User: Fold this.
Amino acid sequence: MSAKHDLFGTHSDWLFHTLDNSKASLPETKTFLPDGTRISRKAVGVLDIVPPAGRGNPNSEAIIVSAGVHGNETAPVEVLNELVSELIDGEWELACPVLLILGNPPAMVAGERFTEVNLNRLFNGAHGRSEYDGLAEAARAQLLEEACRQFAMASPQALYHYDLHTAIRPSHRERFALYPFVAGRQVPVRQCDFLLEAEVETLLLQHKAGTTFSSFSASLLKAESFTVELGKVRPFGQNDPKRFSGIRDALRRRLRGQPAPSPQPPFDQLTVFEVVHEILNTGKNFRFHIPDDVANFTEYQPGTVIWEDDETSYRVGHSPEAIVFPNPEVPVGQRVGLMIRPKTGSKLGSDEKGVR
Ligand SMILES: O=C(O)CCC(=O)N[C@@H](CCC(=O)O)C(=O)O
Ligand SMILES: [Zn+2]
Assistant:
């Protein structure tokens, strides 16, 4: 029997197996590749992969990569599935422990952002709130947190987490990453270089911890974590693979333990923004003054009223601010968008010290 058959039975690959078993609770299954690499399918859509003892891990790292936390963000799911197929087919050898996650299989089958509640608001323990009792997404958040905890405990190396997404709106900047807030932390220059290698040339610094997957791994597992937005939401099969070659090639290079290339034009400078305001649906007759179809990074001039309710309002401050993720269709208390502005001295080259 082949490793592929042990893991995915009669399904042609990891993605088909995950979609076909989206609601199943399957027991853990382990197998080995001919080179000794151990692959454990911890749960549906969760693979823990460890290279054989004795193989060098030249970058001394352990990596978590997640995709499909929102079920309709399919391109990053296809990227991860492709990397898994290449590894299982023996096209390259793994150098470091890796945990690969397809976040929300039932939502992937439905082609929806989520089925009952937004999975990416349930981390950092939020899944335990009584309002989420009995919801499938709350159970999934708990399972994913536990899988990440176990992976982190088993891997003494430096831990990295890339949570891959695509955006609902068009964007003036096609690819961008968000760096979760952890007090006193600076973005390491090597991570800036990795983002550039993945053709991600814009970075947003969050201003407070949240309940996203990347905020959980950054705050509680001390990982260097990023949410990475790689383009626009499209159904399975409608993504242009060329637009995702940057992240695919950069991740493959990391998993193989190869040295980092130096940043090359046009991806040699990261533009950095800071979040200045998180817009929440206050519920008190909340009114959002941004049109439905506005693109991410659309700029607003000082004094523009962005939202108001019966008690308060938010106006752009002394310098222009841009909007990211505008979406008023969220439950009360949840994020409607982020207001950002360029970080002073925001062009970061590979020879500088980091930001913040
Ligand atoms: O395009 C949108 O409105 C949402 C895209 C998306 O899912 N973004 C993530 C960002 C998570 C973070 O802030 O780190 C999300 O909203 O969950
Ligand atoms: Zn998303």
Notes: The radius of gyration is 20 Å. The longest strand covers residues 335-348. DSSP finds eight helices and 16 strands in the chain. Helices lie at 3-8, 14-20, 75-88, 105-110, 136-154, 189-197, 213-220, 245-255.
